[in-house]
Amino acid sequence: MGQQHVRIAIGSDHAGFELKERLRDRLIDQGHSVRDFGPTVPDPTDYADIAAPLAEAVVDGQHQLGIVVCSNGVGVSIAANKVRGARAALCTDPWSARRSREHTDCNILALGSYVTGHALAGEVVDAFIEAEFEGGRHVRRLAKLAAVEAKHSDVAEPITESVIEERGTPELSPMA
After folding, report:
1. Residue numbers of the domain that contains 15
2. How many domains in the chain?
3. Cα three-residue angle 139-76-46, rounded to 5 degrees
4. Which of 16, 40, 50, 55 could form a disulfide with 11 if both were Cys (CB 3.0 to 4.6 A apart)?
5. 33-55 pLDDT, tens per residue?
6. What is residue 98's predicted lDDT score, i.e. its pLDDT?
7. Residue 175 domain-assigned?
8. Taking the mean position of all CA atoms in its chain, how far away is CA 104?
9. Would residue 110 count as lying in a domain?
């Protein structure tokens, strides 16, 4: 995609709010089209409520790439990757971000706001946006990932709060 104009979806939970805001403004200043999936204020927000619709919009072609942010990047990456066709990569450095696009054709970048400082996050985002999928031998590998995804996409049982309570999963703090 190089330095051309890119349609980007961005979103976060409350922990990623400040970094998301800074990255959004930076991307707009660079000339990209940016849709902010929220939140609009730093109030408690569940990452799945933002990351899943954002991933759907990327997979549907409304946006070329997506960026999701939470405290460590794990929750948003898991939520985004639950959407069939989403390939979210949690990256903490520019090399990994670039490689995620070149070899794995990732379409969503996940960042941890408590892990990656603002300046470095900007470099990671730039590397992600500027990189392009190399194709070649990587196409075969992506086909294998798609086969795994297809095999397992209809088998997952929805996990509700009652299922979590039954399994004895420890209760999380409200700011988790």
Report:
1. 7-167
2. 1
3. 150
4. 50
5. 999 999 999 999 999 999 999 99
6. 98
7. no
8. 14
9. yes
The amino acid sitting at 68 is V
* Residue 167: pLDDT over 80: no
- Examine the residue annotation and report whether 14 is marked as an active-site residue of this protein: no
Predicted local distance difference test score (pLDDT) of residue 42: 95
Q: What is the CATH number of the domain that holds 97?
A: 3.40.1400.10
Residue 63 bears catalytic tag = no
Burial of 147 (0-12, 13-18, 19+ CB in 10 A): exposed
Among candidate residues 14, 63, 70, 106, the one labeled active-site is 70
In a domain, 127, yes or no: yes
Which amino acid belongs to residue 6? V
Query: pTM for this structure?
Result: 0.87
- 61, amino acid identity: G
The distance between the two most distant Cα atoms of the chain, rounded to a whole number of Å, is: 50
Residue 19, pLDDT > 80, answer yes
Cα–Cα distance for residue pair 16/25, rounded to 1 Å: 14
Q: Give the strand pairing for 108-112 and 65-70.
A: parallel
What are the distances in angstroms from CA 26 to CA 14, 83, 138?
19, 27, 31
